[in-house]
Backbone:
């Protein structure tokens, strides 16, 4: 038997402004996939961690260990040299 894991650890409410179009897209996508809007945004934004140029930028920052840990990139950055 596998134990149930919580969906969002350390979730915080944020105050961002988005266009009406983006709000409509998120709302309709949430209905489509049967997730809450916050879950859709959370999953989508985590895709930013797949951007090679962003990862190169993170790799080039001095003293970036805490930032890498907070973004959950330890496995990606460990042993991988980004050109």
Residues:
């Amino acid at each position: 038997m596998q134990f149930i894991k919580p969906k969002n650890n350390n979730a915080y409410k944020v105050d961002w402004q988005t266009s009406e179009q983006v709000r409509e897209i998120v709302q309709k996508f949430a209905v489509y996939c049967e997730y809450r809007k916050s879950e859709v945004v959370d999953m989508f934004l985590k895709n930013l961690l797949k951007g090679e140029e962003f990862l190169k930028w993170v790799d080039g920052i001095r003293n970036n260990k805490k930032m890498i840990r907070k973004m959950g990139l330890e496995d990606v950055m460990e042993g991988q040299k980004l050109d």
Q: What stands out?
A: The longest helix spans residues 20-33. The helical segments are 20-33, 37-46, 52-60, 65-70, 74-77. The mean pLDDT is 88. Residues 24 and 30 are 10 Å apart (CA to CA).
